[in-house]
């Protein structure tokens, strides 16, 4: 998360961002006008570019100059990449939630076993085998 915040912090003025991206400042203005980049603005209206903006301009240059993609195509590619990034973020969050629920369920099973002094078994798909659930401090009969 810290690295992402750093990449998105708008710190470069247009001339510096253009030099870092290897383009003319007017190119950045054109890309902004066409909706390809969205630099931040200061209270006075000055454009501020982040490292992510600079990386995006480099990608635009690569797609247009090396791959022959027109700007409408580039805009589509960029939107698809944004959707992919959002999907990856949601997947990461969902996996973390699944792990949290799994830990909570295991804890609840252990507590139930302790409270009842009984053996709890887990049935796992697709296997038809029943495996004893490992509990801490289970009494043997």
Automatic annotation (TrEMBL):
Task: Spell out the InterPro entries in the cross-references.
Answer: DNA-bd_dom_put_sf, MerR-type_HTH_dom, MerR_fam
Q: Where is the HTH merR-type domain?
A: 11-80
Identification of the protein by name: MerR family transcriptional regulator
Coiled-coil segments: 77-111
Q: A Pfam family for this UniProt protein?
A: MerR_1
Q: Does the keyword Lyase apply?
A: no
Molecular function as annotated in GO? DNA binding; DNA-binding transcription factor activity
Q: What's the superkingdom here?
A: Bacteria
Q: Which UniProt keywords apply?
A: Coiled coil, DNA-binding
């Amino acid at each position: 998360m810290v690295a992402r915040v750093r990449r998105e912090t708008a710190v470069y003025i247009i001339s510096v961002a253009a030099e870092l991206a290897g383009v003319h400042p007017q190119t950045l203005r054109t890309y902004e006008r066409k909706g390809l980049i969205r630099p931040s603005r200061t209270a006075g209206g000055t454009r501020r570019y982040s490292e992510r903006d600079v990386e995006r301009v480099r990608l635009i240059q690569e797609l247009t100059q090396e791959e022959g993609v027109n700007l409408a195509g580039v805009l589509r590619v960029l939107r698809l990449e944004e959707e992919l990034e959002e999907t990856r973020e949601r997947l990461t969050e969902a996996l973390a939630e699944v792990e949290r629920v799994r830990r909570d369920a295991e804890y609840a099973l252990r507590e139930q076993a302790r409270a009842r002094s009984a053996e709890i078994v887990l049935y796992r798909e697709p296997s038809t085998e029943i495996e004893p659930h490992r509990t801490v401090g289970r009494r043997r009969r």
